[in-house]
Amino acid sequence: MPRRAFATAKGIYNVVYSRGYWFRTPEAWNDTGNFRASMYMRPLAIWAMQISLQQHHEERAGR
């Protein structure tokens, strides 16, 4: 799952920065390239990934 999580994060990063959305990240695009909900992309998801990875590393280290 970590590979999938980072692939998702990389996709979001690429879209946000390469398309210049920065703080106006769309929620979704349709097949014509238009988007909806221009101010939402599940902002807390990245922190859930961080917590999960941190716990995983701590478990592997025997803490």
Q: What is the number of helical segments per DSSP (H or I, 4+ residues)?
A: 2
Q: Report the radius of gyration as a whole number of Å.
A: 15 Å
Could you tell me the strand content as a percent range?
A: 5-15%
Question: What percent of the residues sit in helical stretches (DSSP H or I)?
Answer: 40-55%
Form type: elongated
Order of helices and strands: HEEH
Structural class: mainly alpha
Number of strands: 2
Mean pLDDT: 77
- Tell me the major beta sheet: 2 strands, antiparallel
Unreliable segments of 5+ consecutive residues: none
Assembly of the depicted chains: single chain
Tally of separate domains = 1
The termini sit apart by: 21 Å
Order of strands side by side in the largest beta sheet?
A: 1-2
Could you give a short description of this structure?
With 63 residues, the protein is mostly helical. It contains two helices and two strands. Strand 1 and strand 2 form a beta hairpin.
Description of the structure:
The chain is mainly alpha-helical. The protein has one domain. It contains two helices and two strands; from the N terminus they run H-E-E-H. The protein has a two-stranded antiparallel ribbon with strand order 1-2. A hairpin with a 5-residue loop joins strand 1 (28-29) and strand 2 (35-36). The longest helix is centred in the N-terminal third of the chain and has 17 residues, at 2-18. The model has no long low-confidence stretch (mean pLDDT 77).
